[in-house]
Specification:
This protein is mainly alpha-helical and 291 residues long. It has a domain of 122 residues. It is built from 7 helices and 12 strands. Its main location: membrane.
């Protein structure tokens, strides 16, 4: 999209203007840093740095600030005057075809903008179609919207609506208990279980606050879940990252369990060998001395 808009911006001549400053059709494009006229229109993608932000532009309702067919006062190009955008009309009168119209209308920007083969300005897609996965013409828009709008955050109401005492949160207790390293009847498991019961059995606010502060201050190493630096657990609210952290530690626990099982298997085999040698020696003595 940026490349296409860049081409439109540079299409400025005596009889051609594609990105106008205002509604009047006689004003050529005017670039001032990241704005065209008074409108923010940077053609360089921002640096992808992680940050907390409200979803302003892409919501479950769709692309909020994108011009579409129902938008009022947002003509794509002038209908008359000298500053029409000939790149956006496929007609021989005021378009780029010159000698004859294009055989049919066609779409640009993944179905967002339809270029007419008549002497009329292009039209934008309907807002509902831009988020309709069943519409093949605009499916890239719908896929991007679906992937973005459905990202579940830790602040989502489906997660944060629990109330009451920690001791009453059985589902949360069971989920936490499932992550304990399953070491059988070992001191490590006993300690972990005791810690969990201490956390979920402490209904006093002071204990809850202390426990929450301790958990939030836990440092997750840089290598875990593609983190770019060591990060306190409490500052992570993206569930995809939290799932990655959980998966990492479950994998580590599984490795420990596998090693313990392997060690236990070797120990049993050694014990069995010693027992067989002992029994064989005892049988030999009994045979030799008639015992």
């Amino acid at each position: 999209m940026d490349d296409f808009l860049h081409m439109l911006e540079k299409s400025d001549s005596a009889n051609n203007g594609c990105l106008l400053q205002e509604a009047a059709t006689s004003q050529a494009p005017g670039r001032e840093n990241t704005k065209i006229g008074s409108t923010e229109c940077s053609l360089q993608p921002p640096n992808p740095t992680p940050m907390k932000a409200q979803r302003k532009h892409i919501t479950t309702a769709g692309y909020r600030n994108l011009v579409h067919t129902q938008s009022a006062g947002n003509a794509v190009t002038g209908k008359t005057g000298t500053q029409q955008c000939k790149l956006l009309i496929a007609h021989n009168t005021n378009g780029f075809s010159e000698a004859g119209s294009q055989p049919r209308a066609f779409a640009l920007l993944a179905g967002y903008l339809e270029i007419k083969n008549t002497d009329t300005p292009p039209t934008t897609a309907e807002a509902a179609q831009l988020i309709n996965l069943a519409n093949k013409a605009t499916k890239p828009w719908a896929m991007a919207h679906d992937a973005t709008a459905k990202i579940l955050k830790a602040s989502d109401s489906r997660i944060t609506n629990q109330t009451g005492k920690p001791s009453e949160r059985n589902a949360l207790f069971n989920a936490a208990q499932a992550t304990i390293k399953k070491l059988g009847n070992t001191p490590e498991q006993s300690i972990a279980t005791k810690t969990l019961k201490g956390i979920f059995g402490a209904d006093e606010k002071e204990k809850n606050d202390d426990t929450e502060a301790e958990l939030n201050s836990e440092i997750i190493p840089q290598v875990v879940a593609a983190l770019t630096k060591d990060t306190p657990l409490g500052s992570i609210d993206n569930l995809q990252i939290l799932y990655g952290i959980l998966t990492y530690y479950e994998w580590q626990a599984a490795e420990v369990i596998a090693k313990l099982k392997q060690g236990a298997s070797i120990s049993r085999k050694k014990h069995g060998t010693k027992k067989r040698l002992h029994n064989a020696g005892k049988t030999g003595l009994q045979t030799r001395y008639g015992m």
